[in-house]
TrEMBL record:
Native species: Rheinheimera pacifica
Ketopantoate reductase N-terminal domain boundaries: 13-145
Record keywords, A-Z: NADP, Oxidoreductase, Pantothenate biosynthesis
EC number(s) from the headed UniProt entry: 1.1.1.169
GO CC entries: cytoplasm
Catalytic activity: (R)-pantoate + NADP(+) = 2-dehydropantoate + NADPH + H(+)
Protein name per the record: 2-dehydropantoate 2-reductase
GO terms for MF: 2-dehydropantoate 2-reductase activity; NADP binding
InterPro entries: 6-PGluconate_DH-like_C_sf (IPR008927), 6PGD_dom2 (IPR013328), ApbA (IPR003710), Ketopantoate_reductase (IPR050838), KPA_reductase (IPR013752), KPR_N (IPR013332), NAD(P)-bd_dom_sf (IPR036291)
Entry similarity comment: Belongs to the ketopantoate reductase family.
The keyword Oxidoreductase is assigned to this record: yes
Function: Catalyzes the NADPH-dependent reduction of ketopantoate into pantoic acid.
Domain Ketopantoate reductase C-terminal: 173-294
Length: 298
C-alpha cells in the first residue's frame, strides 16, 4: 500500500503489560537504541533478562505518543479503557493478539486524530520469572484500521519492524486473521484438551479431528468472505505442528496454569460466525464447550 514520505519523526513507544510478546518487543526496541517504557497494572519500573542482556524499563508517563498493546484478546477492552486518559491527542495504538480482533468499540472511543492498528505475529516468546526468551523467529503483518493511522504509516511500520519485524504492511488484516484463526483453531483446543505439546498432534489419531476442524473453519471463512484453501490450510497446520513440535500452545499453557484461555476469540468466534451463516460446525462447537468446561474447572 502507498506510504508517506520517509520524513516522519520516530515515535516514542510504550508497551502495555509484562507478558512474553510485550517484553520481546520492548527488549528489541531497547537493544536497537529506541526509547521505550512500560505501562503496567501497578505503575513501576521493571528489570528483566532478555536472552543474555539485563534490561531496565522505565514506568510509562503520560502523554503516550504510541502504544503497543500485546495483551490477551479478552483483556483488550479494559486495557484500552485504562489507557484513554493518558493518550496524546494524536496517539497511535497497535493491538496484537491471537483470535479475531473486535475493534468497533475501540475505534469509536478514540478521537479523530488517534490511530488504531492491528498486528498479527508468528514470533514466539516465553517468560519465566524475570527472564524472557525469543523462542521462535517469526514475522508480522500490520494494518492501519482508521484514517488517523494511515497518516502515520511510515513511523509505525518502522517501529514495528524493530519490535516484531520483519513486518508486512497490508490495507486489510482480515484475510491474515482468518488464516491465523484456522491454525489456532486446529492446534490450540486439541493441545489444551489432551494436555500435550504441539508435536503430539502429528500422531495418526489426531488427523481426522484436524481435518474436520479445518473443513468446518473453511466453510465458515468462505461464507464470511475470506475463503481459505482447505488443502493449503491442512499443509500449513502440519508445518506449524512440525516447526513448533516441542512447544506447548498458549491454550495448553493457560489451562495448565489455571488461566483464562482465548477460546472465545478463536473457536468461539468460528462458532458464532457459523450460526450467523447457518453452517453446522459440530466439532468446533464440541471443542468450545470442552475447553470452556476445563477452564471453569481450573
Ligand atoms: N507468547 C507467544 O509466543 C505468542 C503470543 N501471541 C499472542 O499475543 C498475545 C499476548 O501474548 P503473551 O505475551 O504470551 O500474553 P501474556 O498474558 O503473557 O501477556 C499479557 C500481559 O499483559 C498484561 N495486561 C493485560 N491487561 C493489562 C492492563 N489493562 N494493564 C496492564 N497490563 C495488562 C498481563 O498482565 P496480567 O498477567 O496481570 O493479566 C500480562 O502481563 C496473546 O493474544 C497471545 O495469544 C501470539 C503469538 C505468539
Ligand atoms: C501457532 C501456535 C499454535 C504455536 O504454539 C500459537 O499461536 C499458540 O500457541 O497460540
Amino acid at each position: 500500500m502507498a506510504q508517506n514520505s520517509p520524513t516522519q519523526p520516530a515515535l516514542s513507544w510504550t508497551v502495555v503489560g509484562q507478558g512474553a510478546i510485550g517484553l520481546l518487543a520492548a527488549s528489541r526496541f531497547k537493544l536497537a537504541g529506541w526509547p521505550v517504557q512500560l505501562w503496567l497494572r501497578q505503575p513501576a519500573a521493571l528489570d528483566i533478562r532478555f536472552e543474555q542482556h539485563p534490561l531496565h524499563f522505565n514506568c510509562a508517563t503520560a502523554p503516550l505518543a504510541a502504544v503497543l498493546i500485546p495483551v490477551k484478546s479478552y483483556a483488550v477492552p479494559a486495557a484500552v479503557q485504562a489507557l484513554l486518559p493518558a493518550l496524546a491527542p494524536d496517539a497511535q495504538l497497535v493491538l496484537s493478539h491471537n483470535g479475531m480482533a473486535a475493534t468497533e468499540h475501540i475505534l469509536s472511543s478514540l478521537s479523530p486524530a488517534q490511530g488504531l492498528w492491528f498486528l498479527t505475529t508468528t514470533h514466539g516468546a516465553l517468560k519465566q520469572g524475570a527472564t524472557v526468551r525469543h523462542t521462535g523467529q517469526g514475522q508480522s503483518v500490520l494494518s492501519p484500521l482508521n484514517a488517523a493511522a494511515k497518516n502515520q504509516l511510515l513511523a509505525v511500520q518502522q517501529a514495528m519492524d524493530i519490535a516484531l519485524g520483519p513486518v508486512t504492511l497490508t490495507g486489510n488484516i482480515l484475510p491474515f486473521l482468518w488464516h491465523k484463526l484456522a491454525i489456532n483453531a486446529a492446534i490450540n483446543p486439541l493441545t489444551a484438551l489432551n494436555n500435550c505439546n504441539n508435536g503430539e498432534l502429528a500422531k495418526a489419531q489426531y488427523q481426522p479431528l484436524i481435518s474436520q476442524i479445518l473443513a468446518e473453519v473453511c466453510q465458515v471463512a468462505e461464507a464470511a468472505g475470506y475463503p481459505l484453501q482447505y488443502a493449503q490450510m491442512l499443509e500449513k497446520v502440519q508445518q506449524v505442528i512440525q516447526n513448533t513440535a516441542a512447544n506447548f500452545s498458549s491454550m495448553q499453557q493457560d489451562i495448565a496454569h489455571s488461566r483464562r484461555t482465548e477460546i472465545d476469540a478463536i473457536t468461539g468466534y468460528i462458532v458464532t460466525q457459523a450460526a450467523r451463516y447457518n453452517i453446522a460446525v459440530p466439532l468446533n462447537t464440541q471443542l468450545l464447550q470442552q475447553v470452556l468446561q476445563l477452564q471453569h474447572r481450573g
